[in-house]
Fold:
Amino acid sequence: MVFQNYALFPHLNVFENVAYGLRIRKMKKAEIAARVERCLAAVRLEGFAERMPHQLSGGQQQRVAIARALATEPKVLLLDEPLSNLDAKLRKEMQTELRSLQRRVGITTILVTHDQEEALSLSDRIGILGDGELKQVGTPLEIYRRPANRFVAEFIGQVNLIEAQALPGADRPPGTLAFAARGHSVAPGKPLRLYAAEHPSLAGRESVLFMLRPERIRLSPAPPEGAAGGVELRIESVVYAGSAVRIAGVLPGGGELTALSSDPSFPVLPEPGGILYASWEPGDLIPIE
Amino acid sequence: MTRSSRTPGAESAGRYRRNLFSWVMLTPGLIFLGAFLAVPFLLLFVISFRDVDNWMNMLPTYSLNQYLEVFTSRFYLHMIWTTLWVAIVTTVICIVLAYPAAYLLVRAPNRSVRTALYVILVSPLLTSVVIRTFAWIVLLAQNGLVNEVLMKLALISEPLRLLWNLNAVIIAYVQVMLPFAVLPIATSMGEIDPRLRQASMNLGAGRLRTFWKVTLPLTIPGMMSGAIIVFSLAAGSYITPLLVGGRLQPLLPLAIYQQVLQVANLPLGAAMSMTLLLLVGVLVAGMGLILRRWEGRMHG
Structure:
């Protein structure tokens, strides 16, 4: 187990910290020395054996803690928010480092984190816990693209959630089903018409909650061509985050949508109060349980 | 001019005013300490080099005679050794007994229990040493409680001689000084991150080994602080040994008391005081050094 604050023994040097579990197992001295050396090499801390914990940086202490946990060759390694005490840049480095270390050593690792991005980028499988129960278990791709429920959808990344009512008889493009949004209206009293790709879970459903990821929404200054057309949005806020621009707007009849566009799609940042047209593919509307 | 854009000159003037203020506040204390500690101490130091005639009058000459007497007489050397030995034994017993008590304090289930335990621990310090020591006379005397009970239980046929020896002095010392050992140990124990113990157990250590390998080493600073306090108190008190040991015990504080107040040989008393101060100082400095090095090892 690796603790959030590392819990290195402050009175023991790096070597003795890593050797702690081995001494308890009464291993031979030479064997201990070899094993400790191997573990320190695995976390790239060769030459640090004589240092005391207080002489190490946060990232180095972190790696000693991992080496200490690895030394006893456990079946499962539990990392309790191992990166939460590190600054943003070091955290990114350690994420890559952890991932490749885990691959090299090949120990099943459970990593506890509050950082969705960290969870998505580090794991083979993610379990999402909420209200004391396991909300969904799946690969990062499954969790992100097909969240099983509203909790997971809202937890992993920002989303637009649209409640909608089935319109069984309505005109629709082939391969889709038509719905009328409840909270989103293109004009007062005129609900937003949605076309969702046909999906087994939609069969016979009266009312459905759809998830629409902000990055799936395309924004254009003029109404796009095509049957679905675009939804008029009055811009409420524009947040520039370097690689992307987050734009939130309201529909003329009420209801909010947030879109995430990559930086180059806007030579000039749009101003709040302006009008943009939002559009998306039927496959981007993901039904949520 | 706003607060944030103060000139360096104004800032240093402000610091000067603050410094001046704290010096003014310190002055009465400094004068008091100077007049009643530093000056008498210097006088004592000077007097320890004075000679005396056969009627114990101080002569205007200076020599090392008093120190020669202290360090060449077997009587005084034995006394120095006994004083240090009694203080060391008291210190060791205090630390050993204080450890479980400190553990109990730190592991108290909640705040009110902990507060209650602290009050119980500290309350003896509210009464005078004389009263606390007198209690031991009541307990240990020929017809005292301990002898009475042992006689009634027919475990002994005649009263044991429990008072008026060094064992009685050590027993009374331990009782009087135990709180001074418990408090620093409890403090350093309370500062240990509980996750260190979890980490140790997680790596396969049992409770006992976790104690020896983690808890005990991390409380060494507390034990050292406690030892320093207890040792210096035990090497320097004279009330407790006088009351339960009697005035004839070979302990330096008692001898100093006799030389000064009964024999009226001030220079010899002063030389013995200086000797005691030096020995305690050296030993305490040694313990302080161990403490510093251990803390430096852990925290830099």
The CA atoms of residues 40 and 47 of chain A lie 9 Å apart. Chain A has seven helices and 14 strands. The longest strand of chain A covers residues 176-187.
